Amino acid sequence: MLADKVSRQKPCHHCKSRPAAAPPDTSTIHYEKSWLYRHCSSVQQRDRQAQKAGQLFSGLLAMNVVFLGCAFISSMIFNHMAITLAEVWILLSILKVLCLCWIIYYLLGTSRQPHAVLHRDSHAGPIWIRGSVLLFGSCSVLLNAFQIGYSAILIQCKSKVDIVFPSIEILFICTQALFLWHHSKDCIQVQHNLTRCGLMLTIATNLLLWLLAVTNDTIHMEIESQLREVEQRFAGNETTSCTCPNTTSCKVFQKGYILLYPFNTEYCLVCCSVLYVMWKNVGRRISHHHTSQAKPKFKLQGVVFGPLLGAVAVVTGICVFMLYQIQATGSVPDRQVFVMYYSYYIVLLPLMSVGAVIGTIIHALEKRELDTLKNPTRSLDVILLMGAALGQIGMCYFSIVALVATDPMDLLNSLILSYSVLLIFQNITQNVFIIDGLHRQHVVAAVEAKHTGHDRQHASELPSEEETVAGSKQRDTQTSSSKEEGMKEQNHEGYDQRRVSMIELGQEIRRVSLSYIHSYSVLSWKRRALREISFFLVLCNIILWVMPTFGAHPAFENGLEKSFYGYSTWFVIVNFGLPLGVFYRMHSVGGLLEVYVTA
Predict the structure, then answer these.
(1) Which residues, 6+ apart, have CB-to-CB distance to 156 below 8 Å?
(2) Distance between CA 502 and CA 507 in Å, rounded?
(3) N or C end of the chain, less CB within 10 A?
């Protein structure tokens, strides 16, 4: 009987311990699990749908604002009698006031709500981007100040809008720069739709300001070229009713405005990139794996040849640029100055292309895996690199067609043709190198700690050597003082101090050199090569950014493509391609610094 009871009780206990084996007893558990799973998945799906709907609505808002502004600006260009520049300024002023209202509301209201900013994107808003916002924003503020001063001097022939518009622009630039400096990393978790619409409205306003700056630059260059032709034909007879008087203040405002003008276009594009990353981060929740990675800092180690070659390229480029500015800005540009300018590019661009190709090959040989984590900043960097490069590439193809169709065997034509082909190849190879480097994972921090430990151990050995040198110097001074008691003590002490300072300076230089050589030797040859190439390309892109930014525009001033396509058509091509090319060089510097740091 006991055995029967035990045998009857064991199966029941076994069934309770294994509920999956008895479907009738676990049907309610399966139902609850499936209901909870369906409920959670439906909530996540609704969140994704709401996020997509908010992004779609804000994107449509920005698209309509941009199309409206483009219609105004285009109408001003094609029919400046019906739509004037003052009316375009009024439209942009309304948009800037709306953006200012939203930014102030975000600073004082949205960002201060509880649980508003639970996460911050460490990749968004790096220091070089925020520094660019402050730098270009400061230059844009000075630009508008010069415009106000210039318009105030010529108030008899200018409207009041010429003063009101720059004043609103200064307020908008300062508020936006403050907003981006403090909140570029925010992943806002409240008021998603309002924040998305505000960010997109600000992006659209910056795009329209950039477009207006480009078209105004076109009109300015056209007037400048027409005045130059008038001076050549009529020996400088001026008939303009509104001209700058021959005073120092007016000349300063005029020259300052022309000098600072390109920085305004750069400021608008940089702000658009930062605002787009913030728009992508609205409602984003960052996991612990994203924030646990320590981002490496910039250290000048592992580079010797890259800075030397880059410094040679920068110094040579500055000399070429100064000679070009002196000779090409005259009434009759010299043909030789264009030959010198394009020859410099023909020498530099192949070196940059070869370096980028070698760096891409080294990336392929490395063991580092690809970084597959979600990173809106990196995705935007790739889009901006590819999109901004289209400006220079498009101009080059237009030049190639024009030169091949005319006289490709001419010396200057052949140089421009070679320059165009090399520039296309350099942009492509550099983009591949930067994009491949941005998608590589960072070097393991343990290797860095090991190297720094060796450096500290090596540096700790040097002070003992300095102590022995100091002891020998003390003994030398004691013996010399005993032998030369009859000499004047002041001269002896001065000579001894100079001798000691020279020895200490030599020892310090020796210690720093040995420490740097040791830090250079502990890196693998692949990392050294990547850092050398990245630093060299950084300096080259800086000089290639400086030259067109401050007025070197041989694509229009040589007159070859202009005579082929016509005055107005080539102006449109140049003034849309040049700002994108300038932005590409500046953005490439940031990408190359990222590759250098992570190598």
Answers:
(1) none
(2) 9
(3) N
